[in-house]
Design brief:
This protein folds into 2 domains: 225 residues, Spore Coat Polysaccharide Biosynthesis Protein SpsA, Chain A (Alpha-Beta Complex); 69 residues. It has a 7-stranded mixed β-sheet, sandwiched between helices. The chain is an alpha/beta fold and 317 residues long. It is 49% helix and 12% strand. The protein is built from 10 helices and 7 strands.
């Protein structure tokens, strides 16, 4: 069994040497066939040079330099695409994750789980700006997605290769990997892991991330529930607008003949037209989305289902 450890880094020059020492100590004490993939996410300090120096001294250290700062999701995806291990482990490079927890994650994978996520139960971050918003986000994500985890934001996770290779990430979606993996039939586990306070450098996240999480969660919910039937969203919104248009038309007629107000004395005629046009456009968008969805699946020969296993069924070419 080969383990691929993926570590995205952005302006972490002060953490490189302590990180390398901790990783070397860990892998010297544990009998793993391993590779460590460092993804330099367009750092503007000396992170790139320090990583290259370390890679020269150890063939197990692999370094990927991105042309600019693409974000943590893209950096993790780059590491996954270039990983060759049977089990892929992701962790942060700021020394807040502990490599000593890796065997616990791998043990869960060996039990039969496809993905094991770390839970920073005793988190060492600012409770007001980091911990509290994270807890609220985790509850919201678990409620909406149906995948109940205490800590979606913990980068320390382990995956079976065949599961994570099926997942394609965009934007800032790395925190939702367990949800994507669950769609592909993954059995998801979560265990408490150590969390250390940051000693060097500054955090790359702030309160502004909350809005990104909310928007990303809306995308995830849409993809989970309506990616194959987008007409249900657009058409449903369109039908609601048609109903509002008819209701405004009824009120308009009522006020004209029984309420003592002409059409020009109320905004109802404009609302009738507005809601009708919005409903019509929404349904047209739904039709367009349906055509795009079918084109997506049929042009790439993608099935609308995933098979776990079969018995006495011949495999198709």
């Amino acid at each position: 069994m080969k383990v691929s450890l993926i570590i995205p880094l952005y302006n972490e020059e002060e953490n490189i040497q302590p990180l390398m020492s901790r990783l070397k100590e860990f892998f010297d004490e544990n009998d793993y066939t391993y590779e460590i993939i460092f993804v330099n996410d367009g750092s503007s300090d000396t992170t790139a040079q320090l990583l290259d120096e370390q890679a020269e001294s150890n063939d197990c250290y692999k370094v990927i330099h991105l042309r600019r700062n693409f974000g943590q999701t893209a950096a993790i995806m780059a590491g996954i695409d270039h990983a060759g291990g049977d089990i892929l482990v992701t962790m942060d490079g700021d020394l807040q994750n502990d490599p000593a927890d890796i065997p616990l994650l791998i043990a869960k994978i060996e039990e039969g789980y496809s993905l094991c996520s770390g839970w920073r139960k005793d988190r060492k971050d600012n409770p007001l700006t980091r911990t509290l918003p994270s807890r609220i986000a985790n509850m919201l994500i678990s409620k909406i997605s149906g995948v109940h985890l205490n800590d979606y934001g913990c980068t320390l996770k382990a995956y079976k290769r065949e599961i994570i290779k099926e997942v394609k990430l965009y934007g800032e979606m790395h925190r939702f990997i367990p949800i994507y993996a669950y769609w592909y039939g993954a059995q998801v586990a979560e265990i408490p892991v150590h969390h250390h306070p940051r000693k060097y450098g500054t955090s790359k996240y702030g309160l502004g991330r909350i809005f990104k999480v909310i928007l990303d969660l809306m995308v995830v919910k849409f993809l989970a529930s309506y990616s194959q039937k987008p007409i249900y969203v657009f058409g449903g919104f369109g039908l609601i607008n048609f109903l509002l248009s008819f209701a405004c038309f009824g009120l308009m007629v009522y006020f004209k003949y029984w309420g003592g107000k002409t059409f020009i004395q109320t905004p109802l005629p404009q609302l009738v037209v507005l809601f009708f046009i919005m409903g019509f456009m929404s349904i047209l968008m739904g039709f367009t989305a349906e055509i795009q969805m079918r084109t997506y699946y049929e042009s790439q020969s993608k099935p609308a289902y995933l098979i776990s296993r079969t018995r006495n069924v011949e495999q198709k070419d």
